[in-house]
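Pinned message: reference record for Phosphoribosylamine--glycine ligase
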Amino acid sequence: MKVLIVGSGGREHALAWKISQSPKVDKIYCAPGNAGIGQIAELVPIGAMEFDKLAAFAKENAVDLTVVGMDDPLVGGIVDVFEAQGLRIFGPRKNAAILEGSKAFSKDLMKKYNIPTAGYETFDSPEAALDYLENAQYPIVLKADGLALGKGVLICMTKEEAKAGVKTIMLDKQFGSAGNRLVVEEFMTGREVSVLSFCDGKTITTMTSAQDHKRAKDGDQGLNTGGMGTFSPSPFYTEEVDAFCRDYIYQPTVDAMAAEGRTFVGIIFFGLMLTDRGPKVLEYNARFGDPEAQVVLPRMKNDIVEVFEACIDGRLDEIDLQFEDNAAVCVVLASGGYPEHYEKGYEITGLDWFDGRDGYYVFHAGTKLADGKIVTNGGRVLGVTATGADLKQARANAYEATTHVDFRDKYCRSDIGKAIDEV
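Predicted structure (tokens):
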């Protein structure tokens, strides 16, 4: 098979690495990719949002399967474009990807179908939102309705912070058109857990649990980012929690989408909050998480291409999804200044340390090849992942591995997975 991957981040590198292990696959393309992906796939200089060019490339090169890593092309309708031309592609159609594309839609869906989530209100005008905030309970959460690179969520401790947040999202348009509508949500407390799942429209099969660290700095301080690190599995995601989520969240979500005429085929990422009143949905995503993929995929035993094909063909119920009885931790190495201003173009050294080391992986996110050298080309530069017999061992291995890679202004959090020390 020939496989085309759409995207350029750490998640897409993890996907390329996993797909390359399939005996079914002998050629991988990635558009546009990065320096790390270029070591296992042929890079194609087409942007992720250039659907017609991507479809033409897939046809001309007899691509058997396209896998979309990113949210923007899915929400934009890349699957519809490919399917209209008879091309096999893994991911939700545009009318189903709205599950991630509009927070207002997903909240309304959960409300209609009694799927547990935080209380909320939706606003189309800043004036109405500001009026509502006068008598709201604090802390409170503001969410830009659309896609915002994982950063369009503000947790506001006071009325003044919330009013400033409305200005940031709806008036200053810090997240662009994503802030045309605003979801104001009840603040929930508890443990966060991420659960990724495969869906074929009717059957849903969950992967192992993970936990992301969104804030830029230690102790969950600083600005929201795309994710500074992850660990898997979450010790807080017990069998009891899993049973509840299967009955009241996972299958009901797939059934609700089907009932709405928005059959979901692809990945549903469930962002959960384990509250003292039970698990509730924080958010849905319509693709693999980044950096969740970097800890979940190294633990997956299955041939991922077989799973993708089973989803597309509506026979996911035939797949026995299995994961290693181990743990994984991913530490993101970022450019100093991320997620605000940062420099690019610094040479990265030490990457060859990972060559041939079992249980250690370096997934490229913001990198490119320049004059024969791999240099920084983004805010999140690399994801250093290590496995171990348990979470503490995996965490120690991951942090030890980060010391072997270097670039100017390298920055990482020192407390990824620290919550596991409390268990």
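Pinned by admin. Summary line: The longest strand covers residues 265-275.
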